[in-house]
Design goal:
By secondary structure, the protein is α/β, with parallel strands linked by helices. It has helices at 62-70, 107-122, 139-150, 169-183, 242-250, 275-291, and strands at 17-26, 29-38, 45-51, 74-78, 89-91, 99-101, 104-105, 127-137, 154-160, 203-204, 225-230, 257-262. The strands form 3 sheets. The chain has an 8-stranded mixed β-sheet, sandwiched between helices. The longest helix has 17 residues, at 275-291.
């Protein structure tokens, strides 16, 4: 079941925070991004990179970024390639001119873009590169989790209403068949408008989902990890996603993790009635594990 992404409440910029529009380059594609900084900084600050979900943009998480910056962090939001103000992916096709592909959800591409954003914030003046946090929501929560498990620069993780379970059953078999057909030139690799989920904008490149498995990365995840879910989640089973991730992490010696289900809200309610609770928890998590300490050494 899927719902159209709503119009989020507007950002009320804290007086202590400034925002600058910047560009992140990822495999030759310009990603539309904003960086949020405390206006007054005396020492290098932690950096946090935020990732939106399916159909979202850098504005999905602008309120979170401003909140983190008001607490002394430097926060970076960006729009994934092919969406809104970010550049398209080009496909040569069979015609004389390349085609610009828009509104695609390709997990391999999203992972690369997120790592490019980590590169960007690591080079940002005033950021302490030894204290970088990852935040993600919905599909972007899985992206953030995957990167936190595999990039030693990330020292703390916070995700909400995160979709992290791999494909399984008939849809996995279909995705594998499509990956084979695409590689062998037996089907059109252009996926724009091909795999559409009713109620969600854009389309997914299912062939790239066959090896995308955030849950499968958890044996490499060692940083403090916060996960939040909606009690009335309607888009996927939370027990198979963040709930399962927490079951894997909680019994591990030395692992710092917390899982909380916010009652009375649905998937998009995390941005409305659940916003104060979830954003405050994320801010406090990063304050504890990035601002007040050097994070976890790997």
């Amino acid at each position: 079941m899927a719902l159209a992404e709503p119009k989020y409440p507007p950002l009320e910029m804290p007086d202590s925070v400034e925002r600058e529009k910047v560009t992140i380059w990822s495999n030759g594609v310009a990603l539309d991004a904003d960086i949020y900084r405390p206006k007054v900084r005396t020492t290098p600050a932690p950096g946090v990179v935020l990732c939106h979900g399916w159909g979202g943009s850098k504005l999905t998480c602008e309120r979170h970024a401003a909140l983190f910056a008001a607490s002394g962090m430097i926060a970076l939001t960006f729009t994934q390639a092919t969406w809104f103000g970010s550049g398209p992916r080009l496909w040569s096709g069979s015609g004389p001119e390349p085609q610009a592909l828009r509104d695609l959800v390709d997990p391999a591409d999203w992972l690369q873009n997120y790592l490019a954003a980590i590169d960007y914030i690591e080079g940002e003046p005033g950021v302490d590169g030894s204290r970088i946090g990852a935040w993600g929501t919905s599909f972007g929560g899985g992206i953030a989790m995957h990167c936190a498990a595999n990039d030693a620069r990330i020292r703390a993780l916070s995700v909400q209403v995160a979709s992290v379970a791999p494909l399984a059953g008939p849809i996995l078999a279909y995705a594998k068949r499509r990956a084979i057909d695409m590689a062998r030139g037996e089907c059109d690799p252009v996926t724009e408008g091909f795999h559409v989920i009713p109620g969600l904008a854009g389309s997914g490149n299912l062939a790239k989902w066959t090896n995308y498995d955030p849950l499968g990365q958890l044996d490499r995840l060692s940083v403090p990890t916060l996960m939040m879910d909606a009690g009335n989640e309607e888009m996927f089973a939370i027990a198979d996603n963040a709930g399962r991730a927490y079951e894997i992490l909680k019994g591990r010696s030395g692992q710092i993790s917390h899982y909380e289900v916010i009652p009375g809200i649905d998937h998009y309610g995390i941005y409305f009635d659940g916003y104060e609770h979830s954003s405050t928890m994320a801010r406090d998590w990063f304050e504890r594990h990035l601002v007040s300490s050097a994070g976890v050494q790997r």
